[in-house]
Amino acid sequence: SIDFSTLTRSTGLTSLDYGFVNTAATRSAITYIDGDAGILRYRGYPIEQVAQNSTFLEVAWLLIHGELPSASELSEFDDKIRRHTLLHEDLKRFFSALPHDAHPMSVLSSAVSALSTFYQDSLSVHDPEQVELSTIRLLAKLPVIAAYAHKKSVGQAFLYPDNSLSFVDNFLRLNFGTMAEPYEVNPVLSKALERLLILHEDHEQNASTSTVRLVGSTQANLFASVSAGINALYGPLHGGANEAVLDMLASIRDSGESVQKFVERVKRKEEGVKLMGFGHRVYKNFDPRARLVKESADEVLTALGIHDPLLDIAKELEEVALADDYFIERRLYPNVDFYTGVIYKAMGFPTRMFTVLFAIGRLPGWIAHWREMIADPATKIGRPQQLYVGSPERSWPAER
Ligand code: ACO
After folding, report:
1. Alpha carbon nearest to ligand 1 atom 40, residue
2. Which of 109, 241, 247, 394 is deepest in the core (most CB within 10 A)?
3. Ligand 1: does its nearest atom lie under 6 Å from the Cβ of 28?
4. pLDDT 10s digits, 33-44
5. Relative to the CA of 266, which ligand 1 atom is closest?
6. Can you tell me which residues form the catalytic site (predicted)?
7. CB-ligand 1 contact for 123 (6 Å cutoff)
8. Is the CB of 355 under 6 A from ligand 1?
9. How far is the first Cα of the chain from the last one, in angstroms, to the nearest whole number?
């Protein structure tokens, strides 16, 4: 067994580790990844079984509390979340102050940051009841904020949540329902979206989760920490990759360039050209989520009767890349983002909403990590070292 207390003591040695490739910043009991074997487990349960048998909220509870909820715990959790979906009316007005063409990720992070101003009775990091209340509020309100960011971008009126609907169905209605007519949830979309959200729920110390932990280590409240995590997710090397994949597929289609030629440009490392949705810091094998998402892409498009040439391009890209020495030597495989965009597009979401959907999926993981960190007596404020490479001491010029 390891004595963790000794690991947190300074040894007087500093290692330089760009991108934290080899440095563990914490211990965690939430998610296990074996990147060489392509294994992902939530609280010990293999992702394949989780995705098959669960609901989004059941997995959220599992991640946050460590064990599966009993039937009564789950229904109480679900009820509480349904009761907290409404946004303060002043917070709704906040959206109109932002430009109509704002990126929904910026709207999302700003509105989540603003939650600290509206819900000041749940900001304590030390009071378990307040932590629980901010957890419920975030889980209830983030999908509503996300749907309003979408409605704003298309210039449509915001709907009030319908709390008779499940978490996912309520979200679909808020996005695609209108004031003019009742909205019928398509069970194919609902099931597929729930599965995608579950696959995104946690992924241990990725950039956004580490951001949530770093901000939270200062004892900033949960809303502030999650808002920072949303901003970290926004970048195209992280959650923003799902949007970037679709842009890449569309630009291949529109330019008429062959997949082979595009891959050659990637291999030549032409400025700004990468195979988006490929490669991962920890998976040096298939990302197990990518396999499951690819299955969903086929199922959803078939069930909706959609034939999308972008899916054909994606499959061809995968086939070409997986047979190419450049990708084989570097152990680059499709990651979770490679096929999600094609599914979100088929569901009717605009490209700029894709990363927002990722954020809703990842929220339980962020909350679970923030709570684990707050409860861990070994937690210290995050404060990396640096190796100074600047000028030695010099005198300010007497005359300038
Ligand atoms: N296309 C082409 N080449 C790539 C790609 C890619 N997608 N990913 C990595 N490489 C190459 C690098 O150029 C590098 O080549 P080199 O050894 O000749 O210099 C080698 O593979 C190693 O790559 P690094 O960038 O060092 O790997 P790192 O672990 O730092 O980066 C990352 C991982 C950011 C995911 C990277 O693979 C990437 O940019 N992928 C595309 C963006 C993407 O899909 N991000 C989503 C990640 S999953 C998620 O956040 C949900």
Report:
1. 279
2. 241
3. no
4. 999 999 999 999
5. 2
6. 280, 337
7. no
8. no
9. 62
ipTM: 0.97
Q: Whose CA is nearest to atom 18 of ligand 1?
A: 330
pTM: 0.94
The answer to whether 60 touches 87, Cβ cutoff 8 Å, is no
Check if the beta carbon of residue 332 is closer than 8 Å to that of residue 275.
Answer: yes
How big is the chain by its Cα radius of gyration, in Å? 22
**Does the annotation mark 280 as catalytic?**
yes
220-279 per-position pLDDT tens digit: 999 999 999 999 999 999 999 999 999 999 999 999 999 999 999 999 999 889 999 999
150 is catalytic: no
Q: Is 278 in the pocket of ligand 1 (CB under 6 A)?
A: yes
- pLDDT at site 111: 97
Distance (Å) from CA 278 to ligand 1 centroid: 7
Relative to the CA of 207, which ligand 1 atom is closest? 50
Query: What secondary structure, in 3-state letters, does the chain show?
Result: CCCHHHHCCCCCCCCCCHHHCCCCCCCCCCEEEECCCCEEEECCEEHHHHHHHCCHHHHHHHHHHCCCCCHHHHHHHHHHHHHCCCCCHHHHHHHHCCCCCCCHHHHHHHHHHHHHHHCHHHCCCCCHHHHHHHHHHHHHHHHHHHHHHHHHHHCCCCCCCCCCCCHHHHHHHHHHCCCCCCCCCCHHHHHHHHHHHHHCCCCCCCHHHHHHHHHHCCCCCHHHHHHHHHHHHHCCCCCCHHHHHHHHHHHHHHHCCCHHHHHHHHHCCCCCCCCCCECCCCCCCCCHHHHHHHHHHHHHHHHCCCCCHHHHHHHHHHHHHHCCHHHHHCCCCECCHHHHHHHHHHHCCCHHHHHHHHHHHHHHHHHHHHHHHHHCCCCCCCCCCCCCCCCCCCCCCCCC
Residue 124, by phi and psi: left (phi above 0), alpha (psi -120 to 50) or beta?
beta
